[in-house]
Specification:
The protein is of the alpha+beta class and 230 residues long. Helices cover 30% and strands 27% of the residues. The strands form four sheets. The chain has an eight-stranded mixed sheet with strand order 5-4-3-14-7-10-11-13. The chain has a two-stranded antiparallel ribbon with strand order 1-2. The longest helix has 18 residues.
Length: 230
């Protein structure tokens, strides 16, 4: 527990690189230990905290805005999202001006969904960035394969065979975000009832806690690779 406690201590002192070293050491040297899952969770939260901050990291850039730039244009250029640029630069809207400097993530994110463990692993440049609990398809019905995020929707409407269920309704099973996959009718979404997270209970989609899917939605752009495995 000493390594974990040191990681927490350095994190509280905002010495994030030092904290990361201790969490990584637990993950590499103490596989299967009681602290491993705690270290993985702490490291994932720390990674997101740094990503969402203005701190420039090896996988981000300080970008000087040129005349005619828009957040959408910059996001497309670097393969990131407008939401993430806003978040990491404390922008409340889309207003930017020439010569202003922005932190822009240049990391290449990818996703692996493991149906046997009901976890979604977000990877950054092939390294584990954060691990999330999810629900997958009942009777193992979530499709296996390599897909892409084809579309993204905030506060999705759920269309059933005989009704249109608005966002925010307790009957809308999609929760607060939808990321549709390149296989029709399947996606990664939030939850109106999070009690099934960690189990195989869905009609085939990957279900997350709303706070987790909102975080993931901010980070990953369309065309992000999603690999689903048994």
């Amino acid at each position: 527990g000493i390594l974990y406690d040191l990681g927490i201590l350095y994190e509280k002192k905002s010495k994030f690189d030092e904290a990361r070293k201790y969490y990584h050491k637990i993950l590499s040297d103490y596989f299967g230990s009681v602290r491993q899952k705690d270290a993985q969770n702490q490291l994932g939260n720390l990674n997101v905290k740094i990503l969402f901050s203005p701190e420039i990291t090896p996988d981000s850039k300080s970008y000087e805005i040129a005349p005619g730039d828009t957040l959408g244009k910059i996001a497309k250029q670097f393969g990131t999202t407008v939401d993430l640029i806003r978040k990491s630069n404390n922008l409340s809207g889309d207003y930017i001006r020439a010569k202003m400097k922005l932190k822009v993530s240049a990391a290449k994110f990818s996703i692996i969904v493991d149906k046997s463990q009901n976890i979604l692993t977000l990877k950054s440049n092939e390294e584990i960035f954060k691990v999330y609990p999810v629900a997958t398809g009942l009777n193992n019905c979530t499709p296996v394969g390599t897909f892409m995020i084809a579309n993204k929707i905030v506060d999705p409407v759920w269309y059933t065979e005989d009704a249109m269920v608005p966002s925010g309704s307790p009957k809308n099973i999609l929760g607060s975000r939808w990321m549709g996959l390149s296989i029709q009718h399947y996606g990664i979404h939030g939850s109106a009832d999070p009690s099934g997270i960690g189990k195989q209970v869905t009609a085939g989609c990957v279900r997350m806690h709303n706070k987790d899917v909102e975080e993931l939605y901010t980070i990953v752009p369309t065309n992000t690779e999603v690999v689903i495995v048994d």
